[in-house]
Amino acid sequence: MIKVNNINGTPEYEPKDYVGIHSDDKFFYFFETPEECDKFYTEIPTNPEWKKEEIEQQAEELMDKALEQNWYSRFDVQFYAQKGEPQAIKVLKYYENLWRIIEDNFSNGNYDFKLPEYDID
To answer: Which ranges of the chain does DSSP label H, i.e. alpha helix?
Structure first.
């Protein structure tokens, strides 16, 4: 890898041969092999905020899927759960469980976990 100063968004110079390029606020990184490029990207730390947003979006999508499977809107499921309908209560408990799992993992600094799919039974 050839590391070159980043001067106002432009590399100080551009190497003759490279297979990939990455930049940040300080440097341009020119990769000389595909393996070098792959290694670089696997070692970049993940921004926890981006990962949090991704996981939270996944939870909302899983909830939407559970609602759709049971013919509920978000309003309907709350209404029927308040009336004591068991399936609506189960869907709401599933949603609460998703967020409990998320909060538990985030509080422990874990951003690499799977959320459970809703089980109709």
So the answer is: 34-43, 48-69, 74-82, 86-107
Whether the pTM exceeds 0.85: the reply is no
- Which is it for strands 27-31 and 10-11: parallel, antiparallel or unpaired? unpaired
| Distance between start and end Cα atoms, the chain | 54
* Local structure of 64: helix, strand or coil: helix
Give kind and range of the element (H or E) at residue 23.
Answer: strand 20-23
Report pLDDT digits (tens) over 27-55.
Answer: 999 999 999 988 988 887 767 788 899 99
Total domain count, the chain: 2
List the domain range (segments joined by +) for residue 75.
Answer: 48-107
